[in-house]
Amino acid sequence: MSTLPQVSRISLKNILFPTDFSATSDAALPFALTLARIYGSTVLLAHVIPPEPRRQVVTDHVPAEDAQVWQDARKRMNDFSSRHSLADTPSKKLLDRGDLADVIPEMIREHDVDLVVLGTHGRTGVSKMVLGSGAEKIYRSAACPVLTVGPKAHSANWALRQILCPVDVTQNPEPALRYALSLAEENQAQLIVLEAVPMVPWQHREAVEQQSRFYLDKMIPEQARDWCTPQFLIRWEHPVEAILLAAEERQADLIVMGVRKSRAAGLSSHLPWPVASEVVSRALCPVLTVRV
Prior knowledge:
Layout: E1 14-18, H1 23-39, E2 42-49, H2 63-83, E3 91-97, H3 100-110, E4 115-119, E5 123-124, E6 129-130, H4 133-141, E7 146-149, E8 162-166, H5 174-187, E9 190-196, H6 205-218, E10 231-235, H7 239-249, E11 254-259, H8 274-282, E12 287-291
Parallel strand pairs: 1-2, 1-4, 2-3, 4-7, 8-9, 8-11, 9-10, 11-12
Antiparallel strand pairs: 5-6, 7-12
Helix pairs in contact: 3-4, 7-8
């Protein structure tokens, strides 16, 4: 089992908000602005122009065409900014060109980004969740935590009152739990720590629940107990259903969960596994994923 998380306030100095100027981006922006107001953050509005398509026939580059593409992108960025009330929030506009999987990580490094906030339409497939080509590339390539706003998340009067943190005690819960503890302390929110233990016969559930609660309780640092009285929740469904049911029943405002690194060759080092992706697509609140 990993070391206990330390309660230290997280810093959200810079929040990166990639946008494609769609209604999905419109729906996600209020979440970024709310967090920016809480943490005194600067919101970096970012748009990435797709790379130039490869031509079958080599032609001379046409400067006028390229200039028009950048001019149109700047206009759309200005229009997007003017549609939303950013007067009370420090903000900057970032415009670049290339593949999202390359450009977004570079923006994160260059601007010391602490959090990425993005929206997704969250299509679901037969065997896996598809976040959408743009959102999925960002979700996979960002080295910092990502707050993903799915199609069912509601931003009206959004505040952090109930925070759900699913954990797996056999993995490393420290990064996600540290964020959840810090967010709960900063916002005086109720923290609900959840462990899903599927496929346990009913006659063994009482013993398993006692053991799980014991380990969950040990994960909370002593220094947090003066202000934090977390609720421990054990559910017997598979993780996706356990998380979604708990979030709905407890009216969670945020789900904070760890995302394991991929061991598969050729995949991103923090490929979003189907559990996290499916939760994003169906949750009624945003989902904060933290690398573990």
